[in-house]
Amino acid sequence: MRDNIRDHAFIYRASLLYRKYRTLSYKTLLGRLLSLYPIVRDILISELYLIATIIYSRSISLLNIRNETIIYNKLLKEYKRRK
Length: 83
Known about the structure:
Layout: H1 2-20, H2 26-35, H3 45-56, H4 68-82
Helix pairs in contact: 1-4, 2-3, 3-4
């Protein structure tokens, strides 16, 4: 249960970051996600890379989506599928 809440919280933050900084490069976004690491201490670094990779993958297209709930849901669905 705790892992689930942690995943949801982190992916929600990642979706907000993406929405705010959608023009960032992969490396810069990864840096921003890493800066959130102290907030969600027990998330694995490999999970950060997975989330950043999902955001920039072509399998889910987030670029034209303005609604953060849709971004969050797409990210969460793909994250669960790949994890």
